Design the sequence.
């Protein structure tokens, strides 16, 4: 059997390599030649967790279908460029029927976590988890969309962000930086917040109207000053940091909305104040996207000519895995991808 080398998260908390057989498609499955595989903040969290049964890491895969078992879904062909939706729900329960497969209580697999993911030359996936990548988008853009960028798009969509908005985006890592690009494309004025100057520079280059360093200064005051004392109409929290979560909430004006997408590791008790009620504010959580939302997000990027490739600051080969995760963990990069 032909083999391949995949990147694994070792139980020591280290990045390593392991040999795997090159996958072959069984009924309902496809093999994708991975062209781009993104690194995500959640990978850093996974690296801290004890691992049981090493799988190929990576849940942001994009590439070409090289094998498709019969009977294959009509609409998919060998050679198609695809993004891999990284959850496979049971397909039958109410949440799956709603498209919310990531929340399926009977989830069959999650690529890069419970099943082999995209950090290897080939990836086995359920054919129904493959989403066609529009010709206009690069493989790197597809990898970004397949997790962080799609997450940012959905968060902003849920708040119906438009040209009438001043949006504060907390965190300018790959998700927040995507949020900056997308909110600009939606017509909004963007106030980008981070603690790393390198990431604020990226936000500025991505079109942020204002950038605010939360290091040593209170971003809430700065956001109020930039909005005539009122606060942002919408805030997107992508960092998962406890302080940023409460600042995001405080930065929003009356009737405003705050969407939390940054997962982080510490729970944040949200203070339900009289303000929340008297100002009739909306706080919502949003976790990744449904397949339909991934299709819609990809179409938006094409229609609005969002330059997703500007997100990518570092490209690595799979052999450079250790260096890639070291660079990403420093918290100063934009999107980091493995390209093959
Ligand atoms: Zn991710
Ligand atoms: Zn289900």
Sequence:
């Amino acid at each position: 059997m032909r083999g391949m080398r995949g990147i694994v998260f070792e139980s020591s908390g280290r990045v390593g390599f392991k040999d795997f057989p090159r996958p072959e498609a069984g009924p309902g499955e496809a093999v994708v030649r991975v062209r781009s595989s993104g690194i995500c903040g959640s990978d850093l969290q996974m690296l801290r967790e004890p691992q049981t049964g090493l799988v190929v890491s990576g849940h942001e895969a994009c590439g070409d279908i090289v094998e498709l078992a019969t009977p294959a879904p009509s609409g998919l062909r060998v050679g198609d460029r695809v993004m891999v939706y990284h959850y496979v729900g049971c397909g039958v329960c109410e949440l799956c029927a709603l498209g919310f497969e990531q929340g399926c209580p009977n989830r069959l697999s999650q690529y890069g976590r419970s099943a082999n993911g995209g950090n290897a030359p080939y990836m086995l996936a359920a054919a129904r988890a493959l989403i066609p990548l529009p010709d206009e988008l690069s493989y790197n853009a597809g990898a970004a969309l397949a997790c962080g960028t799609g997450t940012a798009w959905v968060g902003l969509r849920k708040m119906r962000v438009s040209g009438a908005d001043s949006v504060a985006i907390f965190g300018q890592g790959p998700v927040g930086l995507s949020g900056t690009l997308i909110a600009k494309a939606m017509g909004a004025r963007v106030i980008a917040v981070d603690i790393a100057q390198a990431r604020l520079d990226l936000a500025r280059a991505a079109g942020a109207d204002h950038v605010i360093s939360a290091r040593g200064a209170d971003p809430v005051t700065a956001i109020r000053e930039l909005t005539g004392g009122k606060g942002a109409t919408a805030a997107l929290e992508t960092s998962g940091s406890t302080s940023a979560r409460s600042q995001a909430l405080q930065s929003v004006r009356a009737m405003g909305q705050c969407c939390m997408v940054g997962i982080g590791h510490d729970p944040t008790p949200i203070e339900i104040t009289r303000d929340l009620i008297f100002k009739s504010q909306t706080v919502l959580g949003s976790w990744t996207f449904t397949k339909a939302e991934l299709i819609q997000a990809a179409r938006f990027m094409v229609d609005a000519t969002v330059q997703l490739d500007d997100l990518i600051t570092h490209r690595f080969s799979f052999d450079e895995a250790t260096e890639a995760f070291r660079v990403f963990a420093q918290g100063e990069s934009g999107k980091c991808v493995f390209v093959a």
About this structure: The mean pLDDT is 95. The pocket of zinc ion (ligand 1) is lined by residues 40, 42, 59-60, 147-148 (CB under 6 Å). The first helix runs from residue 41 to 48.
